[in-house]
Amino acid sequence: MFFDRIYGYVRRLVSEEHLAEDVTQEVFVHIHRSIAGYDPTRDLSPWVFTIAANKVRDHWRSRRHHDAQRESGFEGEDGEVVIDPADGRLGPLFELESRELRTMLDSAITELPLGMRETLVLRWFEELPFDEIGRMIGRNETAVRKRYSRALQELRGILESRAKLGTKGDA
Questions:
Q1: What pLDDT, on the 0 to 100 scale, is given for residue 125?
Q2: What is the chain's alpha carbon radius of gyration, rounded to the nearest angstrom?
Q3: Which of 30, 44, 114, 146 lies in the 20 to 30 Å Cα band around 78?
């Protein structure tokens, strides 16, 4: 029920797939160990996402994250493009363009400060209400709405600056 949502949330906040898998596993191990302390009269979703948000924060603070960042600075992008076989509906060009757009958007989202990124992912991708996000991250609803709005503005700015750089390079 929650695995796909939690993994998707973590994957959008943690740049590498294998690290996202590790963090997601840590979330579910934590849930398993602390389920006895869960209050069944409360909604399960905010509790689970709060644990996930805390595990992502722990990851960002960890030495492993900093070591991975240092290592990835020396590695170039592999540049390999994998095209799935045509399924008869959309074709490989559409798949490639969609993948490129997703990659560009994910990359731009990773440039956002963690608080903005977290709020954006919880609202946009997980479709959680502002009040629930506020309870998860320890902010009031108004602060969450403002942070979400600033995150969208910041994201728009990042994408526009990348588009301008791409246009200049073509001229």
A1: 84
A2: 18
A3: 114
Could you tell me if residue 127 is left (phi over 0), alpha (psi between -120 and 50 degrees) or otherwise beta? Answer: left
Write out the residue range of the structural domain in which residue 23 sits.
1-65
Q: How far is CA 76 from the centre of its chain?
A: 22
Q: Which of 152 and 12 is assigned the larger pLDDT?
A: 152
Checking if the pLDDT of 102 tops 90, the result is no
Give the model's confidence band at 74: pLDDT under 50 very low, under 70 low, under 90 confident, else very high. Answer: very low
Domain at 28, CATH number: 1.10.1740.10
How far apart CA 69 and CA 61 sit, in angstroms, is 12
Q: What domain count does the chain have?
A: 2
Exposure on the CB side of residue 116, measured as CA atoms within 13 A: 16
CB neighbours of 122 closer than 8 A, spacing ≥ 6? 9, 49, 53, 128, 133, 136, 137
97 lies in the same domain as 169: yes
The answer to whether residue 87 is domain-embedded is no
The residue count for the chain: 171
Between CA 62 and CA 104 the distance in angstroms is 26
Burial class (CB in 10 A: 0-12, 13-18, 19+), 162: middle
What letter would DSSP give residue 124?
Answer: I
